[in-house]
Amino acid sequence: PDDDTWSINLKKGIASAFQNTLPSNSTINSGLNFTETDIIGNCSTVYEVQHEGEKVVVTKLKNHRFCQDHYANRAETPKAWMKAPLPMEESYSECKQEITNGIYTSITCKDKNVIKPAYGSYKYVEAHQESVLRFQSETDQIPPSVSQLPSRFIRKTLRYDQHTLKKDPSMAAKLDEMLKQVCEKVKHGVHEHAASQFAQALHFLRRVPE
């Protein structure tokens, strides 16, 4: 219950990777579509199942553009920003779960996002992310970190926990300066550091009072 928001979201991301809604890992269930609630939101999820000897490979496909209750909602950005949202060209994830004898031996998730800075623009920002969870070992001993957990727990959804940033008027000047730097870098072409500076500008924007 006393976990920081970032820590809770990290654990939710791990739990989301393990999520498997199939009634069984039989190939007969390949192609089934479920609406799942995970760290991204409520998303339509297509399952594919393959058997490779004793190993079962379950692949989950999500198109984030069609997710509901996505964490990037109006509560995170000022109203003025929502009048001109960033055009999302592509946003999807593919998670591959490898299961042997009922044990998840590895989970690999790949995400791709393509965003255009403006409607009709031929320039775009493309981001790829890959995360891997691997089984290391098993033990029947309870780790100290688990044995010291409090007896009282709070049940939470797997959806991303919003963290409301404190508003600060001084952020307006920082936002203005950062946007000038971004505009200067992309004036004649896409610059490798423009994406990180744009992300920083969004951070400042969320802290600017309305």
UniProtKB/TrEMBL annotation:
Keywords: Disulfide bond, Glycoprotein, Signal, Storage protein
Highest taxon listed in the record's lineage: Eukaryota
InterPro entries the record matches: Lipid_transp_b-sht_shell, Lipovitellin_superhlx_dom, Vitellinogen_b-sht_N, Vitellogenin/Apolipophorin, Vitellogenin_N
Pfam families noted in UniProt: Vitellogenin_N
Keyword Disulfide bond recorded: yes
Residues in Vitellogenin domain copies: 1-210
Molecular-function annotations in GO: lipid transporter activity
Protein name: Vitellogenin
Organism for this UniProt entry: Macrobrachium potiuna
